[in-house]
User: Fold this.
Amino acid sequence: MGQAIARAARGPLNWRSLRWKIAALVALACCAVALAVGVLVHQRTFDSSMRLGRDRAFSELLVVVDTYRRTGAAPADPPQSAEVPPALLQRARSTGRFSTWYDDRRPDIPWMWAAQLIDGQVLTVRVDMGSEIRGLWALDRNMVKASLAVLAVVVPLAALAAEAPNRRLRRVARTARRIADGDLEARSMMGGRGGDEITEISATIDSMADSLRDRLLSEQRFTADVAHELRTPLMGLVVSAELLPPGEATDLVRDRVRVLRALVEDLLEISRLDAGAERADRRPVPLGRVVEESVARTKLQVRLTVTGEPVVDTDPRRLDRIITNLVTNAHRHGRSPVEVAVNGTTIVVRDHGPGFPDGLLAEGPQRFRTGGAERGHGLGLAIAAGQAEVIGADLAFANAPDGGAMATLRLRRYADAWRPES
Assistant:
């Protein structure tokens, strides 16, 4: 699921990508600038057209007034009184001075009116503003087309420009995912580039990986050193315990020594798994027989079911270790009945207890997490998971719908059918 989400996030059509967010921000900024410039140009052009219209109307009104004063005759074709804006008439009568009025009651035929009160009569003229308004509309359309053309160029360029930091961020994200998956040698190696916030994030992640690697190596060395240092006094304890006279106290001492010896062996195995020193000795094995023998060696009560005669390519010794640890963990932390089912190349070990704790299901097996308020799993499941990785198997942990812990081991099928000797 995480890989699928990562692939979708890297897709060119992922609209939640930073690349497209930057492009959208640039587009919004361009639209805002275009809108502001368009409104400003529109208003300035409109104001200029109004000034020119008023000047033309004033010039024509001067001719009409001069003719009226010389001849006493009104214009030959005066506008109808119903067409004259009432507000213009009222203003001309009240002030007695030259007045103009832009008449946009009919947007398809706009007029600029001019009026003046002469000898108690209001003389009026009108100038056609249609060409100016149509020119203004044409200007608006051209500005919209130019803005769209600019956006068509700027948005792809912004997306391309955003691809460089976006690619660097994806590289940092890939490095972080590799580190989260356990590859502590992964580095983004961008410390000397850019000097920006992405470089700082990259350097921080690389530094974190160095710190995690050093701490993990230190813990691995400490675990291996402790286990090796304990082997010598432990062997002395084993020999000494065997020399004790029979008795209840001796049995108790020998039992504790066996537990301590098993713990030291587990620590050594964990240290080898952590160091990557384990190598699988693969060969074709009959899965049902191997599981049956492993269950028998535990000497625990188990219901075993084998379906078919599957043959797998694996290391039988490591597979035995995994089965033994899973069965032992089921008896130790679960409740009977413990069931082991072999179906094809899949092995399912389940109990009928309270199930795995949420921390294990979320994070996987963690060494020494035992006891406390929730059930633990110690080294057994951690070793089983490590050995499963060595043999190339998939070990998953879940809780059964009807209750109980369930561990599922999936192995690789052997390509050529293996047949036991008759």
